[in-house]
Structure formats: structure tokens, C-alpha cells
Amino acid sequence: MNTAADMSTLYWALTDEPRSRTARAIAVVRRGYEPLPQWLVPVADRIAELAELDTVNRAVERPLNIEDVLDTLSFLKRVMREDTRLPWIGRLTSGGVELAWKHGDVEVEAVFDRLRGDRELLVSVGDRDWDAPADKGDSLFASVVDRLSNSYIEHACGASPAVACA
Amino acid sequence: MPALDAPVDDDTLVYRLVPVDSCDAVGGRWQFQSGAFDNSTPVRDDERDDEMSVVLGDTLEALNRIPERLPIETPCSDEPERWGVAKLNTGFLRNEVAQDIVRSPKDDELAHGDVRGAKNPKRRKKLKKHAEWVVEPRLPARGSV
Predict the structure, then answer these.
(1) What does the pLDDT look like over A36-54, one tens digit per residue?
(2) Chain B interface with A: residues with Cβ < 8 Å
(3) What is the count of structural domains for chain B?
(4) CA distance A116 to chain B (A)
(5) Model's pTM, two decimal places?
(6) Which of A21, A62, B23, B143 could covalently link to A95 via disulfide, CB atoms 3.0 to 4.6 Å apart?
(7) H or E element: which one contains A88?
């Protein structure tokens, strides 16, 4: 996916008006990917939102970094399953991207931040922590992906009201 | 008011203004994410890139101000309902995540300080786990991606 043509397409996506941005981001990910994954539209919408945040302090924050966005989409394309809950998505002051999932005692964070040289996947289950470079962390993510699925979460919430259903 | 070079005690609280953009909306409440505790990334090369802005509790108290009002009083926000205030303990910052606390008053915020030190993803996650809301953003917390 990280070809020069792809980069060019998504660069347009982040400098054009929001609706066009979303459409173009979708175009990047859907290449060779049918049917379109369900996570793509809300993720692209959120990326478009982050690209035009009105809380940016230009003296100490950078705009969203297109390369970090591409790394993020590439990661999601590899690890997301049909039923995986959507991550929360945020922008770092460097223009990098942070993804976060949390359900019960499972927490996952992925950081894509080329300016600082950070591309990391952090997984914790209760008090135990694991980490891996994000581009080599697919199996680590896979070890908890079932517990981040909508069906698991709905079942857990239904079976045990005491489980935090975030 | 504490002198500029006065040490910040371990039991002093520092306050971090957190925008809703750095929070997830869960069950009608705002939950800050690790990115809420990120260092600034200055555009100018001659400025430090290892500092996170905070408001120092001891100076705030000396000024007879309270952290709950920071979203309204802070000069950087024209939308106070989008900002909450999280508290962190100076001793934790020093001893658990190897940070220095620096007094750096500004014309528009005399209680301004900086939490100085590298904050990689693991440290930001520790900061998230340690921090607690003093006041959540007033904007209603509806679902987000």
C-alpha cells in the first residue's frame, strides 16, 4: 500500500475538503480489498476530523502527518477482523497517530509517530504488559483480538453486568 | 507566591488541561487517552521538545485560585466546555517516570510550569493510568470512533 502513488492520493485526501478526503482515503485502502471493510468509513471520517482540529496550537503542535496516517491504515488493514471493535483514534502533537482499544482488563495502544521514531504496539491484560514494534506486532494484537470483538463484548456485557462495557 | 527557583515539593499537584480531542467518550463520560500527556512539538528548532505544559498547584493556591476554574481562566481556550483538568502528583512524575518539574510563569498564566523529560508511548501510558480528573470537559460525552 505504501507506494508513491498511494501517498500522493492520500496527500490529496488531507488537503482537500472533508468529504473528498474521506472518499480518497477509502480509495487508498480499498485497492485490492473487496468488499470494503466496515471499519474504513468511520476511521476515515475520524482521520478527516483530526486533520482539521480547531484546537491546534501551531506554535507547539504539528498537523497530521500523512506518513503516520498511511502507517495507521496499513496496520488496521492487517489486524482488523470483521467483528473487531473500532479503535479510538487521536493525534499527537508531533502529527503522529494514536490508536486505543479497551475492554475489561484488555488495553491496546498503537502509536505511529515518525517524527519521534516511535512505532509501537502496547498490550496489557490486567497487570501484565507486552510490547512490540507496530509493524511486527500483528501476532501480539492477534493474541487479544477476540476479546476486542463486538460479539465477545456484547456477550461479556450480557453475561456479567459487572464487566466494564467500554 | 513561590520563587521562580523554589523547588516543587513531591506532594504538590500539577494540573494538565486536556481537550476533548484527546479523550474517548465512554458511557457518557470522558476518558483521557495517553496522547493527552504528550510533550509539545515546537516548530522552532531552538525551543525544547521535551516539555509538557501544566499549572502548578502550589502557585495556583498562593494566587487564591482553584483548578476547577482553569478551563474558564486559561487564555488559550475560547471554548472552555471542550477542556477538562487532570491532576498529577509531582512525586510520581519525578520518581516513576523520570521527569523534572520546572516553574515557567507566563504573562497570562503565572502558575505555568513544565513537566520536562522524554515521554515515549510507555511513559505516556503510565501518565494516563496515574492521572485523575479534577473536572471533566463540560461538553456532553457522546460516542466517538
Answers:
(1) 788 988 998 898 888 877 6
(2) 19, 21-22, 24, 26-27, 31, 33-35, 38-44, 76, 82, 120-122, 125, 144-145
(3) 1
(4) 9
(5) 0.86
(6) A62
(7) strand A88-91
